Amino acid sequence: MELAATDGLNEEAPRANGQLVLLVVLSCLGMALFGYDTGVVSGSIIHVVEEFDLNPLQEEVVVSSTVLFAAVGAAAGGVLTTFYGRKYLIQFASLLYIAGALAVAFSGNFVQIVAGRIILGLAIGISSMTVPVYVAECAPPSIRGALVTINDLMIVAGQVVAGVTNGVMEACDVHSGWRWTMGAAFAPALVQGLGMLLLPESPRSLLQHGHTHKAQEAMVRLRGPRSDWRAELALMEQDVHVEAW
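The line above is the sequence of Major facilitator superfamily (MFS) profile domain-containing protein; the predicted C-alpha cells follow.
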C-alpha cells in the first residue's frame, strides 16, 4: 500500500543526509551480524568439539540451535515490532547479540555454549524481521529498493568476514581462537545499540502509534528541513489511516 501511494510523489533526487546514512549503516550491522554468527561456527566448531569433547548429536545442537531460534525470533519480531517500534526492537536485538556473543566466548560447557547460541538465534531472527522494515520506512521512495537491498549484501559480507576471521585465527594458531572469533560479534552489536540512540524512530511507526508531531520531527531529521517531507508524510499518514480501517 505504501509503495503504491508514494509512486506519485514528485520527489527530487535525494540529497546525502547524515542521519539517513547513519541509519542505514547502523541498521545493517544487524544483518552483518546475521551473516557473521551463522558463518563463524563453521570454522570454529571443530575446536569446540575438541575442547568440550562433544558427540555428533551435541555438535549438531550447537550448530543448529541458532538457526532454530532465529525462526522463533523472526516470528516474535514480526509481532513485537508493531507494538514497540522498529528502533527499540533493533536495540533489543543488539543487547541479545552482545549477551549471546559473550555467553559463547566465556562458555565452560556444552549447555552454556548452546544457551549463547540460542540467544544469538533470537537476535538474528528479530533483526531479520525488523531491520528491513525500519530501513524501508525511513528511506526516500526513490532509493528505498536500493537501500533495502543492502541488507542482503551485509549478510553475505558478514559471512565473508567470519571466514576471514576463522582463517586468520587458524593461521596464527591462537589459543582458544574460537572464543575470540565467536565472541567478536559483541563489538559491532555494541556500536549498533549505542548508535541507535542517535536515530529517530520510523515515521510510519510513530504515526501508527498516534505520535504525529514526533513523526514530523523524524522526517525533518531524515530528509532535511528544506526537503518536501510534508508531502511524503501526508501520503504515509493516508496509508496508516487506511490500514487502521
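Note on the example: The chain has two domains: 17-199, 200-245. The first helix runs from residue 2 to 6.
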